[in-house]
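step: validate -> pass
step: tokenize input -> pass
step: predict -> running
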Amino acid sequence: MAKPPLISVVDDDESVREALSGLIRAIGLAVAEFPSAEEFLRSGNVDQTNCLILDVWMPGMNGLELQHSLTASQVEIPIIFITAHNGDEEVRSRALDAGAAAYLSKPLSEETVLDAVRSALEMNRR
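step: predict -> pass
step: emit ->
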């Protein structure tokens, strides 16, 4: 039996991490949770991650900085950005121009998240 794809969730808000993890597990995917970009980078899961759900604004390294770091290291993981800071079109444009698979605003609908994850996994297969 094939191992399910790994979705890594990086968000400093524990309730968001838990909600997203439960949703993703419910459709049979594996999940790893991280409270910071730095912990994700130290985890050893970077190379196993098939999709990254990443908060834009976190203490320490923010989501855009993590995206840049992964790109500079030639690590290609589809990234779904999530943010509570709606209306910041410059940040949205920067994330998408740098290759993000999606940019979603909180509050998140389950359907929107799952559609974005499925789309990102399809990108990863190509």
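step: describe -> Strands lie at 6-10, 30-34, 49-55, 79-83, 102-105.
step: cleanup -> pass
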